Amino acid sequence: MSAPAIITKPKVDIDPDLLSDLETFVHEQGQVVVHCIYLGMGFELIRIWPTTYLFDLHSDHRSELVHHEKISQAPQWTICALGLNHFTLVFSGLPRGCEAFDLIEQCESQGGAFSIRSIRRNEQDVYYVRI
Question: Is 109's pLDDT higher than 80?
């Protein structure tokens, strides 16, 4: 399995209605949206743990997962298709002074947790990552 990566110029098709709803979510509530891409290698099961957070690199602030789309939350599972699978995570807002943060899934599963380090903050607070 390759290391997670931050995608700076994603090539993703997302339902325009969902994108519009999520943008409204972000602007009205100060939330952070992370669109995730996972390459399925066959019959696989994935899920997100509620103990997935954004950690500000320069303070002790932790943004909590408040919503998820197209992925189940543990203990439930989502079946992955062969090829690219897309899901979206929505977190509570980061502090205004935050310039970079880590996305870390803290879970009980051996080897199943992921982390993406040093994500540079942008004005939209919308990010695309490959897991």
Answer: no
Query: How much of the chain is helix, strand and coil, in % rounded to 5?
Result: 10, 45, 45
User: Phi and psi at residue 23, in whole multiples of 5°?
Assistant: -65, -40
Mean pLDDT of 19-40: 76
Q: Is the dihedral of CA 123, 29, 54, 13 positive or negative?
A: negative
pLDDT tens digits, 52-93? 999 999 999 999 999 999 999 999 999 998 999 999 999 999
| Beta carbons of 62 and 38 less than 8 angstroms apart | no
**3-class DSSP state for residue 93?**
coil
Enter the tokens of residue 52.
């997935």
Note if the pTM is more than 0.85. no
E strands in 11-131: 32-40, 44-46, 52-56, 62-69, 78-80, 83-91, 100-105, 115-120, 126-130
